[in-house]
C-alpha cells in the first residue's frame, strides 16, 4: 500500500493507504479527525469540505494519494490553538447558523474559502458559492446571516433575528 | 431569567469546531466489525436460492447471516411484528434486507454485499394505490371513517359543489447524518448500544428480544442525531438489532452505517397519497358539506401508518369548521418501502386536502382565497372560565347545529387564534397591495406569472396514542452545586436539550453552565416515548421541572431549619436565599449532603385532559393546538414550468417561547422543508418498483440558492391557555405546514394563465406546473 504524507492543520501526518482510499477516509479513520463528516457518500452534500492548499475540496471526491504533499486544513484546525473560535465559527454560533450540526463543519469550511476569495461577498454570492453545501434543518437563513456577519456586514436589519 | 432567552444551541461550540460526536465519530475498540445488508432486487418474490459463497470468500468478511442464522426472532417493526430483520422466504420491496455481511471494514462489508446470488420466483407487485385498492391490499380490515352530520345530504342540497382529486408526493427525510448504530458487547451477555435514534427505548426493546435477554441487559445511548425528522423514530431499529446480533454472535463490537444510497433505498419515507374530495358550499364560499377519501400508500409493512393516517384525518379540517363531513381513510399495502413518520406525521397530508378545497372554492366563485379561508375558520375562542367543557365522545353535539368551534372528532377548539393572527400577518406582509401588484404584473407579462397565497395552520399537539404522552427525568445535584441533567427526550438538532436545560436552570436558580446536559440513556430514564409529535419540550420540560421541584424542596427543608419556612426559601442567581441569609447554591447542596438528604431526584409528567377513541373518532386527542400562517409569493416561467419563491412572511404561535432563537430556527427550517416537499422534492419509482431517486443527484432538496430572497418570521407572543411548561407551545412540526403557502401561491400563478382551475398536483415540479398551466388555459 502506498504511503502518503501531508500537513494537516499545521502538523505532519502520514500513513499507509489503499490506492482507493478517499481523503475523507484518511482524515477520519486514520487521523481520527471526525469533524469532517460523510453525509451523502457521493460528494454532493458538502459535509466533507476541507481545504487543500487553500482551496475548498470535498474530501469525498479526492483520493488520499492525491493529497500527498499537500497542506490540508480541516474544521479541527479552524480555531486558534488556545480554542478561540475563528470569526466565522463565532458567527455561526452567535447567529444560530446550525441545528443538528452535521453540515456545520462543511459550511464553515466553504464559508472560509469564500471569504478568502472574496472578503465582502453579497448575499447572492454567498448563496451561489455555498450551493453545494446542503442543510436539512435550518432553511439556510441563519447560515447566510452568519456568513454575512463574519464578512463584516451589518446583519441587524436582516429579518428573523 | 434563563428560560425564555434566545440562547444558542447547547452544542453550538462543539459543532463549529467539529468536536461534536455522532455515532460514526465515536472511537470504538480495536477489532470493531462493520456491517452491510444485501438487498432484494425484486419488489415481490419468493426466495428460491441464496448462494452466498462469494460473499463469504470476499476480502475482510468475517461472517454472513441470513434469517436462519439469527438466534431469536428478530422483528424490527415498531410494534406490529411484521418486519423481520432479514427476509424470511419472500421479499416485499426492492431494497428489503435479505442477508447481513459482517466484515473488517465498512467498504469490505459493502463490496461483499454486492456479491450475493439470490434466486427469485417473481410475483405480481402492487406498486400504486390503485393496484392496492383493486386487490383490497390494506392494513386494518377496511377503511377507517370519521364523520359528523350528513355529508351526502349536505352535498346534495348545496348551492355549489366541486369534486376532484389531488396527488401528493412522498418525501425523503434526508437527515444529513444517515442511519447509524453500534453495539458493544459487555460482560454476562449485556449489550451497550449507540444509536442515532429518536426512540432509544424501542431500540432497547428490539435489541433485547433479538439477543434473547430482558430489557435490563441492554443499555441504549443517544447523544445526538444529525437530523431525524421522524425518519429515526423506527427506521434505526434494523441497524441496532443487526449490530447487536452480530456482536452477540462474534463477541466483537459492531457498527453499521448505511451508505446514503442504501439509506434511501431501504428506509421508509413520508407517505404519498391521493385525496379525492367533494365539497358543497354556499355563495360566499362557506362549506356546508364535504367528503374526503384518503388513499395512503403505506408500503410493505405497517410501521406507523395507522397513527399517521389517523393524524391526517384529524387534520382534514385544518383551521376550518366543517359542519357535515366524512373522512374515509384507506391504508394501502404496497410493495414499496414501508412509509413512516415524517415531521407532521400525516397532518400535512390531511391539511393539503382542505387547503386544495379552499383554493378551488375561491376560484369557482371568483373570491379572494384568503377571504374564503377566513369565512370558514372556527369560531373565535369562547370567553371566560364559565365555558362548558364540551368534548365528550358520543354525547357531543352532532350536525350543523353544532357551534362552529368543534372539530369533526368532537374536540372543542378553545383557543382559536387565527382570527387575530391572519389579519396581523396580512398587514405585516402587505398582502392586499401585493395581491394587486401581482395582478398588475400578470396583466402586463405573458411569460412570467406571479402568484401569492396565505395559508393557515392549526396543528394538534399530543401523541394520538394517549399512553405515549408521558416522560421521565433524572436530575442529580452534586455536592459542589453542579447539576447533572437527564431526561427521555433525544436531541436531533431541534434544541430540545438546551430548552430543557433552561428549565432546570430556572427551577434551581443556577446559571445555565452549572447544568450538565447528558446523553439520552435508557439506563437513566426508562420506558420513554419517542421524541416525536413535537412533544419533546412539553413532556420532558415538565418532567425535569418536577424533578427540580423535588430537589428544591429537599434542599429548602435543610437550609430553612430554624431560620424560616421552607416555602419562603428562594433559589435565584446561583444562590439560595434563606430569610436574611444567602448561601451559594453549592453551599446549600453541601448542607443537604451533610444532613444526609438525597440530592438525586426523578421527575415524571403525563399530559392531562386527553381522552381519545380512535375507532369511533371521538374525543380529545390533543391537549392544545399550535397555530401559524404564512404568505408566500412566487413566480413561474410558463414556458418551462420553472419557479421560485420570491418572498415569505410568517407569523407563528409558540405560546410563550422557551427560546425564541431556537423556535425561529424551527420555523424557518420547517417552512423550507415543507415548501421543498410540495415543490421540488420528487420521489420516482419505476414500473418494477425500484426507487430511481436514491441520492441527492436525483432527489432535490432545497439548497441555499432556493431559500426565499425575503424571509420574515415573527412569533405570535401569547401564552398557551393550557398549563404547559411556562405556557410555551410545541414547535417541531407545526411550521412544516406553513410550506403549503408556497404550493398555493404556485397554484395562484398557474390560475393566472387561463380561465380554468389549474388543479396543481404536488410536488409542483416544472413538469406539473406546466401541466397545470395547460389545464388553466383549457
From TrEMBL, chain A:
It comes from the Bacteria. It holds the Pfam family Fer2_2. The keyword Acetylation does not apply. Residues 2-78 form the 2Fe-2S ferredoxin-type domain. Keywords: 2Fe-2S, Iron, Iron-sulfur, Metal-binding, Oxidoreductase. InterPro entries: 2Fe-2S-bd, 2Fe-2S-bd_dom_sf, 2Fe-2S_ferredoxin-like_sf, 2Fe-2S_ferredoxin-type, Beta-grasp_dom_sf, Diverse_Oxidoreductases. GO terms for molecular function: 2 iron, 2 sulfur cluster binding; metal ion binding; oxidoreductase activity. This is Carbon monoxide dehydrogenase.
TrEMBL record, chain B:
It comes from the Bacteria. The keyword Oxidoreductase applies. GO terms for cellular component: periplasmic space. Gene3D superfamilies: Aldehyde oxidase/xanthine dehydrogenase, a/b hammerhead, Aldehyde oxidase/xanthine dehydrogenase, molybdopterin binding domain. Residues 379-408 are annotated as: Disordered. Its EC number is 1.2.99.6. InterPro entries: Ald_Oxase/Xan_DH_a/b (IPR000674), Ald_Oxase/Xan_DH_a/b_sf (IPR036856), Ald_Oxase/xanthine_DH-like (IPR016208), AldOxase/xan_DH_MoCoBD1 (IPR008274), AldOxase/xan_DH_MoCoBD2 (IPR046867), AldOxase/xan_DH_Mopterin-bd_sf (IPR037165), Xanthine_DH_Mopterin-bd_su (IPR014309). Its cofactor is Mo-molybdopterin cytosine dinucleotide. Residues 17-124 form the Aldehyde oxidase/xanthine dehydrogenase a/b hammerhead domain. GO terms for molecular function: carboxylate reductase activity; iron ion binding; molybdenum ion binding. It is found in: Periplasm. Keywords: Metal-binding, Molybdenum, Oxidoreductase, Periplasm. It catalyses: an aldehyde + A + H2O = a carboxylate + AH2 + H(+). The keyword Transferase does not apply. Belongs to the xanthine dehydrogenase family. PANTHER family: ALDEHYDE OXIDASE 1-RELATED (PTHR11908:SF132), XANTHINE DEHYDROGENASE (PTHR11908). Heterotrimer composed of PaoA, PaoB and PaoC. Oxidizes aldehydes to the corresponding carboxylic acids with a preference for aromatic aldehydes. It might play a role in the detoxification of aldehydes to avoid cell damage. This is Aldehyde oxidoreductase molybdenum-binding subunit PaoC. It comes from Pseudaestuariivita atlantica. The lineage of its organism: Bacteria, Pseudomonadati, Pseudomonadota, Alphaproteobacteria, Rhodobacterales.
